[in-house]
Amino acid sequence: MKLLKQSSLALCVHAALFSTSAISFGAQAQEAQADKVVGVEVIEVTARKRTENVKDVPIAVSALTPKKLEVLGSSGMDVRALSGKVPSLLIESSFGRTFPRFYIRGLGNTDFDLLASQPVSLVYDDVVLENALTKGMPMFDIERVEVLRGPQGTLFGRNTTAGIVKVQSKKPTQDFDANVSASYGTYGSTDLRLAVGGGLTDTLSGRVALLQQDRDDYIDNEAPGFEAKDQLGGYSETAGRVQLLWEPNDEFSALFNYHFRDAEADARVFRANIIKPGTNDLIDGFDRDTVFQDAASRNEQTVDMKGASLKLEYDMGDHTLTSVSGYESAEIFSVGDIDGGYGAAFLPTGSGPGVIPFPSETGARMPDHKQLTQELRISSNELGKLDYQFGLFYFDEDLTINNLSFDTLGGGAQNGIAVQNMETTAWAVFASVDYEISDRVNVNGGIRYSDDEREWDGTLVQSPFGNPSFDEVTSVDDSQVSGDLSVNYRYSDETNLYARIARGYRAPSIQGRNLLFSGNATTADSETVASIETGFKSTTADRMGRLDGSVFYYEVSDQQLTAVGGGGNLASLLNADKAVGYGFELDGEYFITPDLVVAGSVSYNNTEIQDKGLEVQACGSACTIRDPFRQVPNNFAADGDGFDEFALIDGNPLPQSPEWISNLSIRWSKELGEGELYVYSDWSYRSEVNFFLYESVEFEGDALTEGGIRVGYEWYGDDADYEVAVFGRNITDEEQLTGAIDFNNLTGYINEGRFWGVEFKANFF
């Protein structure tokens, strides 16, 4: 793996951890040490499916390079480690390490169902990963991660109303290089990574990358009668990638990519009654290393993923023909103690932090899943003032889900199963044109036509309540036009200004998990978003600093929302008339001295649901509802008060949408001997968030600040580079709620704890 070698390696939240203008290897590294050039790096991105200087792209885009990703993931954290590290990006999960939920500029989806769609798309090595389970693919041996903010309806299409996270792994080259890293840390955590690549023949090159991550169980169970030491919290994950690149001539290339993931972990660890009633504080004496559960011994989550892609490129002179074919398959089995406690209020279980009104132990299995994608496009090759690209896209996904329930009081025997099958087919045609009006002004416009159809059937095979079995069938379909228009103005050699209007589209959705409780499937119509933004991208004349900024406003029509929980403990889809959002984003970096660089970002997002009379079922007496609400008599209300509460949500912010997200980092380095000593620290902040559509005192997450530190030494040889480091994440050991379960008690889950570790790396070439 190529490392940037300079006396000052700059962290850039928006662009790169180490920002320098010279890249050197081996014997060249020592020559570069004697002739160092310090300054912000020229970052190239593929946000518009062309390789471009990020400064020339009229989109709010952030790029994170390998060094940044390695630092953030050094504690074994999954993709959620990226949350808050670039403007307006939040990532969370109530499903564990396997089901990340992305939010950009406040737009996301809190639904935890395996059928759920998201308005943030993940594109991994040019292949869109649609199912939220596939979005948990680990990031290792990565060349770059790009975060595109705002609707991306022209080139990427459906389900990109909020933006895109675009991941690019390192590609094979004819030059040999290899790298290995190993770390050990808190909870017996180990992280091993290996990658090797180079030429196999004069025209064929290859690259192999492997990841192995493990952590011991460390959470004790102290529920009476279920006591066990070190019962939860561990995981074991293996992932790999094999790539072959064939380049028989200068005009044609074929890149084959095979990847897999095999993971065993605990499902998300929920904790009953950890919220102090009347507040959103954790209870007195809370201990993150302890739970009180009666089903902890059966907590299990296994994931098996595999996929392949083939990218063909043919340079025809004035045009390039590109074909990207992708196949993805994923399987999962997951079961957990959803109530997060033990016993039941009507049993002689005594008292304690884990006592619950009644138990809930559920799970899901996805035994069959396949996704096929095909994109074909033609791009012009710098013809002059006018350039363009156009193409077509096809998507097909077929999956089966088993929703399961278990009799906790009866020892965990399965007592319910509902089977869902869904097939999604979509196709689109698109075109984009870029025209150079003058040496200073470029205009870009694009349009896309999308057609979507989903067919779903569900069967209640066994009801946990003894209800009769039944079948249900439904479907949704729609076609939409999306696109964008932007202008980029080169105000000076150092500063570009841009403005952009865009329309995005999120396909209609189906939610069927309620079948397990004899409910009906719910659907949501398509949502569309209209967005306008303007911004600037600038560097100082001496390239010692960089500052980018944007201001935006958007309106979402028929906003897709998921009402989760309430007294009925059900999840259902609905459409709000409208949601609006506005805000700004700033991020930059600056070399204070050649050996000291600071970087930071800040974003403000204000979101609001606008739909008079829209209401959702709320938590009732289990929490303190802030919204106006009405009560409906129900003798079976989960909270035991005899009523179901329905709260009006008009005017509320979108869930998991903090107003403020910021990040600050600093790096100091010093030449020492044959290498370089460095100290690096980064701090991220997100303000308060609502966990659900309605507002309540208890189900609001307090502001969260987390910090990291890394102290290391790099030294360079003739044919290898080495690094040893000590690092820490969440070094102040902040404990905050990051989510909750709206069921029958004050159940929640928290952020990752403090982590310390040591790491060694070696890079050979």
Automatic annotation (TrEMBL):
Per the record, the domain of life is Bacteria
Q: What is its main location?
A: membrane
Location of the protein in the cell:
Cell outer membrane
Keywords for the protein's UniProt record, in alphabetical order = Cell outer membrane, Ion transport, Iron, Iron transport, Membrane, Receptor, Signal, TonB box, Transmembrane, Transmembrane beta strand, Transport
Q: Where is the TonB-dependent receptor-like beta-barrel domain?
A: 293-685
Q: Does the keyword RNA-binding apply?
A: no
Its GO biological process terms?
Answer: iron ion transport
User: Which Gene3D superfamilies does this UniProt record tie to the protein?
Assistant: TonB-dependent receptor, beta-barrel domain
Q: Which GO terms describe its cellular component?
A: cell outer membrane
Q: Which residues form the TonB-dependent receptor plug domain?
A: 54-164
Protein family according to the UniProt entry: Belongs to the TonB-dependent receptor family.
- The protein in question is named TonB-dependent receptor
Record lineage? Bacteria, Pseudomonadati, Pseudomonadota, Gammaproteobacteria, Alteromonadales
